[in-house]
Design goal:
An 8-stranded mixed barrel has the order 1-2-4-5-6-7-8-9, surrounded by 5 helices. By secondary structure, the chain is α/β, with parallel strands linked by helices. It is 51% helix and 18% strand. It binds ligand C2E and magnesium ion (MG) (3 copies). Ligand C2E binds next to strand 2, helix 4 and strand 6.
C-alpha cells in the first residue's frame, strides 16, 4: 500500500521492491525538512451536536504544504512515517499547533473543543500527559481548563494491536484530565470485554458504516450496535462521514450524539473555519428571530 502511494507520487520509481526503501527514505528526509521549515498545516473539521446542531468542536487534520506538489493529504505521507520517531515528532507538532489555535479561539470567546489524532507510538509515550499539560501551559497560561477541551483520537485497530499498552496509556491520560476517543471504530474487533479495558470518552463510528447505512442493512445494524455499545458503556458517539441530511436525521434518531462529515462541513484552514462558524451563529439567530 505504501509503495503504491509512493509510486504514484514519484514517477522516477520503477516500483520494484529494491527501490522502494530508498524512496521512503527520501520522503522521510523531505518530511524532516517540512517539519523544520514549517511546511505542515492544520485544517479543522467541525463536529456538531446531533440533536441541537450546535458546533461542539473541531478535529485537527494535518496537511503538507509542499513547495512543488501543493497541499498533500495525510494519507499520502503519514503511512511512510509509521513506526518511525518522526511520527511522534509530527504528532507533537500537531498538538502544539492545535492547542495554540484552540487557545486563540477560546480567548476570542469561541467555546470549542478540539480532537487531535495521535499515532500509537505517541499514545504510549510515558510522559505524554506531562507533555500535553506543558503544551497547554505554554499556549494558554491563563486557561488551565483548556486541557479538558482536548481529546486524543487513537485508531481502534492500533489500540487493539497492543491492548495492554493502550489501556494503560488511555487510563493515565484520563487520570491527568485528558480524554481519548477510539477512531474508525468498528473496523477492529473490539468485544465488550476489550472495550471495558479502554476507558475512552468517545467512540467514533467509522465512515464506511455511516456512508453505507442508508442502503446497506448490515452497515445500519453495525451503526446501531455501536451506538448501543456506547450507551452501555456511558461513552459518547461521533459519526464520521456524515454526507447528507438523511444520514444526519437517521443518526440523531438512532441516538448518536455528534456528527462530523462533508455534509456538515469539510476540513478548513482556520480563517475559513472562523467564517463558517460565524455563518452558523447567524443562521441560529435567524431561527430564533
Ligand atoms: P480520521 O482521523 O478518521 O479523519 C477523518 C478523515 O475523513 C479526514 O481525512 C477527513 O477529511 C475525512 N472525512 C471527513 N468527513 C468525510 C466525509 O463526509 N466523506 C469522506 N469521504 N471523507 C470524510 P484526512 O484529513 O485525509 O485524514 C486521513 C487520516 O489521517 C485521518 O483519519 C487520521 O487517521 C490521519 N491523520 C490526519 N491528521 C493527523 C495527525 O495530525 N496525526 C496523526 N497521527 N494522524 C492524522
Ligand atoms: Mg480522527
Ligand atoms: Mg476516523
Ligand atoms: Mg480514518
Amino acid at each position: 500500500y505504501r509503495a503504491k502511494r509512493l509510486g504514484k507520487n514519484r514517477a522516477c520509481m520503477a516500483g520494484d521492491g529494491v527501490e522502494r526503501a530508498p524512496a521512503q527514505a527520501v520522503l522521510i528526509e523531505e518530511l524532516r525538512t517540512a517539519l523544520a521549515t514549517d511546511q505542515l498545516r492544520l485544517h479543522y473539521q467541525p463536529k456538531i451536536c446531533a440533536r441541537t446542531r450546535r458546533v461542539l468542536g473541531v478535529e485537527a487534520l494535518v496537511r503538507w504544504q509542499h513547495p512543488v506538489r501543493g497541499l498533500v493529504p495525510p494519507g499520502d505521507f503519514l503511512p511512510v512515517l509509521q513506526g518511525t520517531p518522526l511520527e511522534v515528532t509530527l504528532d507533537l507538532w500537531v498538538l502544539r499547533a492545535g492547542v495554540r489555535q484552540l487557545a486563540q479561539w477560546r480567548a476570542a470567546g469561541r467555546e470549542l473543543g478540539m480532537s487531535i489524532n495521535v499515532s500509537p507510538g505517541t499514545l504510549v509515550l510515558p510522559d505524554l500527559p506531562a507533555a500535553v499539560a506543558e503544551i497547554v501551559r505554554e499556549a494558554a497560561p491563563l486557561q488551565p481548563q483548556l486541557l479538558g477541551g482536548i481529546e486524543l483520537e487513537v485508531l481502534e485497530t492500533a489500540a487493539l494491536a497492543d491492548l495492554g499498552a493502550a489501556s494503560r496509556a488511555i487510563q493515565t491520560c484520563a487520570e491527568h484530565g485528558i480524554s481519548c476517543a477510539l477512531d474508525d471504530f468498528g473496523t477492529g474487533y473490539s468485544s465488550l470485554s476489550y472495550l471495558r479495558r479502554l476507558p475512552v470518552r468517545t467512540l467514533k463510528i467509522d465512515r464506511s458504516f455511516v456512508s453505507n447505512m442508508l442502503g446497506d442493512r448490515g452497515d445500519l445494524d453495525i451503526v446501531r450496535a455501536v451506538i448501543g455499545l456506547a450507551e452501555a458503556f456511558g461513552v459518547d458517539t461521533v459519526a464520521e462521514g456524515v454526507e447528507t441530511a438523511a444520514h444526519a436525521r437517521l443518526l440523531d434518531e438512532l441516538g448518536c450524539s455528534q456528527l462530523q462529515g462533508f455534509g456538515i462541513a469539510r476540513p478548513m484552514a482556520a480563517p475559513a473555519l472562523e467564517a463558517w462558524l460565524d455563518r452558523q451563529d447567524g443562521l441560529r439567530l435567524e431561527q430564533v428571530a
